[in-house]
Write a structure and sequence with these properties.
The protein has 13 helices and five strands. By secondary structure, it is an alpha/beta fold. The radius of gyration is 20 Å and the shape is globular. The two termini are about 35 Å apart.
Length: about 250
């Protein structure tokens, strides 16, 4: 399930959002009332969005500091009204969506449904040629783990531990059900994620390296160049060159 964070300070608005979420399947939501709780969560898990449902200028600014660290996360502001004094123009730009007014509940349903449908970290089973419906419940659980955890934590050792089976058995089961070794699958998935990050989200190489779990930009650049023959800084050039050929 795709994970989201709701940051709130009023029980009434929390209950309102809760009712909205009942109409958007496929989400695993975590509710927090303190910024530190949000920071702690993001240290070990990925999130599709952070919905900020407060009317406190300082609290809003504190959460928006996360924008530069997690540009792949959608920041959504949700409240009855918008107090313009709470924001500077630059802070407005950090919100993917601002949802206010009488129709806010229906608008939020549509926004969250759209985000889940187009989430960049969803595994593209058709493109990778894996028939998801034919996977065992255990392999589906493993795929869900990959979609919701940082890539640096998506190793055979950690997923096997998560599934409570041996590494050898997981490797055999994965190859038998998907037709790929786990290493080959992750290489194909990484290539897909890179395409999304550079071509659709238009993020920098430095940001891409952070999102993909590399400790250093230089490590990501070496890996990227080894696989593709050119550094990530030239990805846009190669993208447009391919379009010209077409």
């Amino acid at each position: 399930m795709l994970k989201g964070i709701i940051y709130y300070t009023e029980e009434k608005i929390k209950n309102e959002v809760d009712r909205v979420l009942e109409q958007v399947p496929g989400l695993d939501i975590h509710f927090y009332t303190k910024a530190d709780q949000v920071y702690q969560y993001l240290r070990s898990k990925t999130s599709l969005f952070i919905l900020i449902a407060v009317d406190d200028a300082e609290a809003i600014k504190e959460l928006l500091h996360l924008y530069n660290r997690y540009p792949q996360i959608y920041f959504v502001y949700y409240y009855h009204t918008l107090n313009i004094d709470n924001f500077q123009q630059s802070e407005f730009n950090n919100f993917s969506h601002i949802v206010i007014g009488e129709n806010r509940k229906q608008s939020l349903i549509e926004i969250l449904a759209g985000l889940t449908k187009n989430y960049w970290k969803k595994i593209p089973y058709n493109e990778i040629e894996i028939k998801y419906d034919l996977l065992s419940p255990r392999l589906k659980k493993a795929m869900g783990y990959i979609e919701t955890h940082d890539l640096k934590d998506c190793s055979i050792a950690k997923i096997s531990k998560f599934l409570h089976i041996s590494q050898g058995y997981f490797s055999q089961e994965f190859k038998r059900e998907t037709g790929f070794t786990f290493r080959n699958f992750m290489q194909r998935l990484l290539a897909y994620y890179e395409m999304i990050i550079f071509d659709r989200l238009d993020l920098s190489a430095k940001t891409a390296s952070q999102i993909l779990g590399y400790s250093e930009l230089s490590s990501f650049s070496r890996s990227f160049k080894k696989r593709k023959g050119y550094p990530p800084s030239l990805q846009k050039y190669h993208k447009y060159a391919e379009l010209d050929k077409g």
